[in-house]
Fold these 2 entries.
Entry 1:
Amino acid sequence: MAGALTDEVKSAEGGFLQLHKDYLDANSLSNDLLEFNKAGIERFESLKFPHPKHEMFTFVNTREIASTEFALNPGGTCSADVVKNHVYACSEQSCLVLVDGVYQPELSDLSALAGKVELADFEKAFSDEKLKQSLVESLKKETDVFSALNAAFAKQGVFLKVLPKAQINKPIQVLLVSTGAEGKPAMSAPRFCVHIGKHAEVKIIVKTVGDGNSYFSNTVQDYFLDENSSVIFSQVQADSKESWNFSKTFVRLNQYSRFKSTHAMAGSKLTRNNYQTHLCEPGAELTMNGVSVLVDKEQVHQYIQVNHHAPNCISHQYFKNIVNDKSRASFDGTVVVDPGAQLTQSDQLINNLMLSDEAHADGKPNLMIYADDVKCAHGNTVGQIDDEQLFYLETRGLSASVAKTLLTTSFARSIIDTVEFPEVVEDLKSLLLSKLERNHA
Amino acid sequence: MLEIKDLHAGSEDTEIIKGISLTVNKGEIHAIMGPNGSGKSTLSKILAGHHEYEVSSGSVTYNGKNLLDLEPEERALEGIFLGFQYPVEIPGVNNAEFLRMAYNAKRLHKGEDEVDPLDFDEILDEKMKMVEMDHKYKARFLNEGFSGGEKKKNEILQMAILEPKLAVLDETDSGLDIDALRIVANGVNNLINENNALILITHYQRLLDYIKPDYVHVLSKGKIIKSGDKGLALELEAQGYDWLTTTTN
Ligand SMILES: Nc1ncnc2c1ncn2[C@@H]1O[C@H](COP(=O)(O)OP(=O)(O)O)[C@@H](O)[C@H]1O
Ligand SMILES: [Mg+2]
């Protein structure tokens, strides 16, 4: 056993296996959680870090993560200012704060949610044998090695149950704060799961921020929508520039449920999101909009699967990227329509705006249709600033640089304006649009 | 005000403007007519500073300055306005916000303070009334989904807001029904006076029933082949362009 481990330490996975040993030594975990964490590390070991041609990581280079030595961050503290700065006014009484993946009751405020939700921390939730078994089982089928890695280290996440018929007007904000460690960069494994009961209507904002420089946050979030429920969702990624951010978002939609989301990305050294969505029962509707605005060497990679399992479901995807300098954006999206999923309507559109010759915007849209009566459309465009539009604005007295800023911001705003929360829209203007307000010359 | 001397210009290897000379003074209205493809739009875009076209020889002087040295926005700020034959659509740019930006750019250039959205709204309302434009076009994206007529009205609205010294209107009449034509022409007539000048590019003479030119020039294959007064436009109307183009060939 010890010998096997020494050999493995030399492999890319070895550092993480050692880190996991340290994690088990440092924490006295309940047997239930231990079972889950062990299933996670086993899955991680068998999946291994992606090789350069791995189909789920076509545009993402994970070599640096595999070769970096990370520290375990005990987590649990961040300055109160960070929380104050990043909790939106609309969510002051409905916010959950996780620092390095650890839920922080003192920094959170759920007063506006009283009687409408039930919250359980991770260990408590695992005492439910059925839930634990289903999570352990689903790990055996996990294809994303980073999601398996999350399960190996997930310790203090939350389970939120929105009670059936609950109508929650104030958006629930989940604030994920990552802190950097001294010396080695820290790894954290935030995990939360939201179960939305029948006929419940809820708005959710997930914002990720950094309180420290270099870290690797590797999040998994699950959303289970029971019949006729609705989620309006907004993701704001505002991490430290020197961070690696990986996340997997799982969405399961039951009959007539609706999930409408906007994913706004400010980018970092390496940001990769994996969205696995399943329209499981008739009448479900999924709308995903996304916008990334990247400069310098920032990267954002979106990997999306939309699975139509049932007839009469609708899915829309509309993603826009603006890439400047040496930044990179990619969109790797697949829509799968199962054999019985007749009358599916699905569209997927990706528009990229390139502001520099050295930037990259890659797209891999993919349709796999196994039903015959469906309406599916997809498109992927890459373009520069339109010369005729620029000329038009200049002939009205706007300088070339003002005109370019206007054209680029308007490109991003068509997505930003779909966000339903005014505070978030304002935040995105300073987070994303301000990046476009510089001399284009 | 404007003096074009033996201008030759084109795009890459093709010469499109093949020796045009034209002088426009304050208070004058010049109509430029000519068949499709004769270079009318190209000339107008060269005057506005489109980077796609290169001037190989000749000169353009505007109020004593070498116009060709100026960037498009400098030309605009100095009082040149181009009404486009095909105004581009710019999704995502709010029409009223854009109009205010243009208005304020001009004010700043003149050393005046910018106006805030509320004050601008009053100015905009008044100008929109003049071109009989519905207020709903304020909130729309710039030209996006506008009908041909609304696009042209929006051009004249911009002219009204920017109050140019020299306006070049490229086929502002094409694609307009008779009502829209009357509205647009009235708008233009309201905006011209003895202190500014107008170059009116048109394919048909019907616009000239509403806006009376002092001079009419016929452009063909990149050259002005005939100049005259209003009467020339009527001759063209009666006989078409053929008699001109064939006799000069
Ligand atoms: N950018 C360009 N590159 C090459 N040829 C052009 C370009 N713009 C215009 N032309 C050509 O120049 C000629 C004049 O075009 P244009 O000025 O649009 O004519 P008009 O407005 O009189 O109809 C046409 O033959 C057209 O195809
Ligand atoms: Mg033309």
Entry 2:
Amino acid sequence: MLLRHTPTEIADRSALTINPAKTCQPIGAMYAALGVHGCLPHSHGSQGCCAYHRSTLTRHYKEPISAGTSSFTEGASVFGGQANLLQAINNIFTVYEPEVIAVHTTCLSETIGDDLPQITDKARKQGSIPDGKDVIYANTPSYVGSHVTGFANMVKGMAQVAAPTGVKNGKVNVIPGWVEPADMEEIKRLAALAGVEIILFPDTSGVLNGPMSGHYHMYPEGGVTMDELRSTGDSIGTLALGEWCSADAARYLDSTHKVPCRVLDMPFGLQATDRFVDALRTLAGRSVPDEITNERGQLVDMISDMHQYFYQKKVALVGDPDQLIAMTEFLVSLDMWPVHVVTGTPGKKFEERIRELTADLPYEVNVKAGSESDMFLLHQWIKNGSVDLIMGNTYCKYIARDEDIPYVRWGFPILDRVGHQYFPTVGYKGGLRLLEKILNVLLDRTDRDAPEQSFELVL
Amino acid sequence: MATKTKKMVQWNPTDIKEDMLKKYPPKVARKRAKQILINEAQESGTPEITANVRTIPGIITMRGCTYAGCKGVILGPTRDIVNITHGPIGCGFYSWLTRRNQTDASGEGDENYMPYCFSTDMEDKDIIFGGEKKLEAAIQEAYDLFHPKSIAVFATCPVGLIGDDIHAVAKKMKDKLGDCNVFAFSCEGYKGVSQSAGHHIANNQIFRHVVGENDEPKEGKYKINLLGEYNIGGDGFEIDRILNKCGITNLATFSGNSTYDQFASCHQADLNAVMCHRSINYVADMLETKFGIPWVKVNFIGAESTAKSLRKIARYFGDKELVDRVEEVIAEEMPAVVAVREDVLPRTTGKTAMLFVGGSRAHHYQDLFGEMGMKTLSAGYEFAHRDDYEGRHVLPNLKVDADSRNIEEIEVEADPERFNPRKSEAELKALEEDGYEFKEYDGIIPDMENGSLVIDDLNQYEAEKLVEMLKPDIFCAGIKEKFSIQKLGVPMKQLHSYDSGGPYAGFRGAVNFYREIDRLVNSRVWGYLKAPWQENPELSATYVWE
Ligand code: SF4
Ligand code: SF4
């Protein structure tokens, strides 16, 4: 047993987090910033945080992740990091020549209280920021919220670039939230099919699923451009996918630049995708083409074909709030039973949403968000009430192995498998892929465990 | 293959160096120039390099932080200590199972906390009002849940800043719990300039709080400790297999596949064999001063180096029985190694490598490449010091600066009861006169060819330049460097936490490495970078059936 010390009996904890179901803000900010074209993320703090964030993102994407660091030493920690950041901005524009630097803070620079707008301003006055180039920023103290919060903060930093001209651009802003590059591509495909012009930000497609060609491009083709970001203030509306990841940025554009926003769930599964497509269509005043309706029909078709294998199967879920909400709804729509749901990201509203979504099921869901809502607790819940399926990031494999439970990798980080870069799980097509993944593990288990006399060719 | 046509052109190291520096702002260029050295034999000895200095802000470095060196590297492989990160959640999360340290906890009742991540997950109120109470409660909760024999606490950056006294909390809890050794590490990431500071902080505390705690006699005729071996990919398992086979007892490995008790009993060994000089040479010194155990430098990376190291250990003990046994083992193990080497040599001879890792691996792995007929064009360390480059003779000349002053040097004296010189002055002298080297490490530079480039704290920009200009057949560094290099069409092998595979130490490890490098440099995939229509863009088609 790998997690041999995890007891079945659950004791209250108030101080010790074990096997966290979250990580810290800056990695979210770094991921988001990679979705801006020509952008070099920069971590304002000591170099360890940056090394860790880059390593984790690299392991997840199997792609180069470049980012700068202010490399604080003790002096900077005592006297403030202004000199380090000024020097960093100058060096970065000289050596790495990005279009834009996206600075985020770390626990250290936040505790010191470095003032990013003031330092950036100084860098501009000193002439360290070449003409036509930009520095955007976000405060990302990791002792507040989680990696999701950091992502949302950097996305808001992007929205703050908006500079309305007064002339509408006829486009819809879509803020996809923390989804994979393949998901961002899928959202763009759906919008294009529906004939709606969108500005998607951030957009990591074409950045974190790049080709191998014998050349290394530090700034690949993909990513939302700074011009597009400036133009978000002229859009006809914003669709924010996910309250935790995307709402802040959308609300900023709404209240500051009168770009009306709607906050939707992330389009995982049938109903959330329905709502997304419907909102897109109404906002842009387009009718939905048959292609999309057919894709939807295919998803409904597969659900009905394989319903017997989903029916009343119990599922344990761990991940981030926006993703979990959509996934819980999807599982319920399959007549599966999400019984344990955990996220380390704080949010009372999250627990309420999950309870609402599971309200008419014949059991009370175990749901917890925030500190000490960790994978240790999830494991203990599983020990007390077993499940047929676990869905979550790679760390779940220790639980899945110890408890011998089928397991689908989904979420962040996935350190030991590939596919998430290339195959979407959002939209109707993504729904098909999710079903395929779930069925594969459930049916592999059926095949593995079936006695010889009832082992079947056709399932 | 198309991608390989440009290589092995004549290059001049001075031009390369100039080219790497020319884009930098002048201040950066000046600083980097001292860390890029063109190797050349000098009359007065080894050329001097600047190392263990701050990374320049904004330069995309390979380095990590002190916390990573302490919690991640040194204490990472300790399986029966509950390691609690005191800080916001990130630092603990990223160091959770991400190094490929293997451990064998298969014994009845063995404790193994390595698959767990423990953190105080500090929140804003803890930052504002201090985190000592939360830390205390967390230690209590860990104790109540697991009853471990030891709990260790690691400070992250904000902890140092807000002034939590983690040592006082640890002491208080140790006294309160009674049967649990609680101690703490002030390994805030901003201390020092790299992971190296963290190694030092970690080892100091292990030495202070654990080493020598257990005097219960350990059996074994030839007892050694292996210092600076972290069992990445099972390296330590292979070394242990060989040592066992020779009849040598490895009491404690610092710290691969280690247990608390190994550290506690290590003072009973008669020799310390140091693998990674960077991360632990000072512990070897302290063990010698306090307990009288001499140390020697060994290297189990490479089959020849393994044989050499075994002979070195045997010669120290000076027993014919052991010397003979070691020869027998080498004779038994080598044929399998040679067979694979002969097989790969035609495909690897003449190929070139670059290594930028560690500590010591950028040096050690050159032996393996050498065994495969491959040449190292350029190498350097991520976080080593001048002595690792130029040899220990520079130690007295190293200046203490603002960063190294941060790192405590423990004053050690001979233990009043347990100091016991394992060899008399006369015995040591006799061995030395016979060419035997104690406490000696000559560094990487003397082993590298004239004209090769030795580069400290290589960064992303320089790496890309080097690869573009010199077109090595393989590049070795860490995970962050892996994919930018491979995008250039050059295979990349991680040598910190081997990306996959291992062990690469010892005899079987050498076999694994030969095969792995053969696979990498000869993979068909590097020939597919261009689509047929990119190779032949002409539009006209010819129809065979016309
Ligand atoms: S110090 Fe803060 S920002 Fe840095 S890794 Fe730790 S939690 Fe994340
Ligand atoms: S906060 Fe400090 S200790 Fe933590 S990862 Fe960052 S540099 Fe290292």
